[in-house]
Amino acid sequence: MFNRRYDAVVVGARCAGAATAMLMAREGKSVLLVDWAEPGTDTLSSHCLTRGATRQLHRWGLTGALMARGTPRVNRSTFHFGDETLPVDIRPVGDGPGMMAPRRFVLDSVLVEAAAASGATVAFHTGFRDVLRDGSGRVCGALLADGTETEIRVAAPLVIGADGLRSTVARRVGAAVRAEGRNALGHVYSYFRGLPLRDNHAFFGPDAAAYSTSTNGGAECVIATTTPGRLRDLRARMDDNDVLRHLAHEADPGFGRMLDAAERTEPVRVFAGTPGRVRDCAGAGWALVGDAGYFRDPVTAHGITDAFRDAELLASAACVGTDAALAAYQAQRDEATAGIWQLTERIAGFDLGMEATKAAFLDLSQAMRAEQAWMDARFAEPAMAA
Question: Running DSSP on this structure, what letter comes out for residue 70?
């Protein structure tokens, strides 16, 4: 059983919430990290950690733990636009990889274990019901429920929602939606062995795209992408395995033939598409991090980087402990995300044509390098590098 008073309650123990809890605990804050799920469960993900996210993991001292669990190095990203191929080598970070794509049950578990080792209290099978408020309306704690549905009231001057796109915390605190995207894509996922590819590959055709990334267990995570309308039409005519292979052939016939010869090792999963959304991410006694506060279409494979960046910004603000610091967290998040948000919207429209799509991804590469420099300038403090 956990205590009834903490400096912060973090709702959601995946990459955003676990990283936030870990960083706050390393600064000596008492943190309760809760999640309703079983520990170590999987979730839909592109798995890609950009170089900026890998640099954070390196500073946090967690790259070795991920590699010890079989996470391979990703040394190159190769973009295929019809007959044109653009390889991009990824420089190492320290003695580790410059890019990784760990399975989520590996990444999230490593972060939760690091949070617990840093002093955070971790409670799985514990659900969030509502925030508690004081007489002025300020959030002052959380109403939780354990596996027996027993309600538990926990006092805390800060409740952090890291509970995903459909965040209950965001609804309970009334976090306003500041921006909504117009575009969304449908994505079909699975894992394969026997593909003659390593590292990270992206294939673009007129009506579909496909991606392959090396991940744990000697497998490649394969994602095929098209518009939601086309995805619905295809699923009405064939099963999801055939949809994935059909889209891979459309994206690049050569890649499609590779996939036909490979062994699928897990069921096919589908994300039908949701437009991006930006919420207010801080208020009186509350904050949001990860997809709860900021979600973009997965086509730019940047969600975990967003989660890590915002976790470190929020942890720093929460350790200061003032409303002004939380307001600065929101301003910094908005500053960091504006360019990549706009590029994601452009790419997710799926109507640019091959040359304009190539130009947009080159712009995205430049934006990610600028983001890395922005993050390096803000996360150099020794306190966050422990």
Answer: T
DSSP state of 349: T
Residue type, 194: G
What distance in Å separates the CA atoms of residue 91 and residue 350, rounded to the nearest whole number?
Answer: 30
CB 33 within 8 A of CB 327: no
**Is 292 in contact with 161 (CB distance < 8 Å)?**
yes
Q: How far apart are CA 59 and CA 47, in angstroms?
A: 19
Indicate the SS3 state at residue 81. strand
DSSP string, 275-297: --EEE--EETTEEE-GGGTEE--
Does pTM surpass 0.70?
yes
Residue 182's alpha-carbon distances to 122, 272, 341, 342, in angstroms, are 37, 15, 11, 11
The token duo for 332 is 């910094």
Report strand pairing: 159-161 vs 8-11: parallel
- Strand 186-193 with 220-226, pairing: antiparallel
Q: Distance between CA 190 and CA 243 in Å, rounded? A: 11
CA 339 to chain centre: 18
Burial (Cβ within 10 Å: 0-12, 13-18, ≥19) of residue 133: middle
Helices and strands (H and E) in the chain: how many: 11, 20
Q: Say if residues 306 and 337 touch (Cβ distance below 8 Å).
A: yes
Mean pLDDT, range 238-249, rounded to an integer: 98
Taking the alpha carbons of 278, 202, 70, 92 in that order, is the dihedral positive or negative? negative
Angstrom distance (rounded) from CA 302 to CA 375: 14
List C-alpha distances in Å: 106 to 17, 42, 69, 109, 216.
15, 9, 7, 5, 8
Rounded distance, CA 372 to CA 52, Å?
5
What are the angstrom distances between the C-alpha of 124 and each of 4, 10, 134, 157? 16, 12, 27, 22
Neighbours of 266 (CB within 10 A): 13
CA pair distance 336, 41, nearest whole angstrom = 30
Report which residue type is found at 351. Answer: D
AA identity, residue 55:
R
- Condensed to tens digits (0 to 9), the pLDDT of residues 14-67 reads 999 999 999 999 999 999 999 999 988 999 999 999 999 999 999 999 999 999
What are the distances in angstroms from CA 97 to CA 62, 100, 195, 200, 309? 12, 7, 22, 13, 18
Give bridge partners of residue 192 from the DSSP assignment.
Answer: 220, 264
User: Across-strand partners of 177?
Assistant: 279
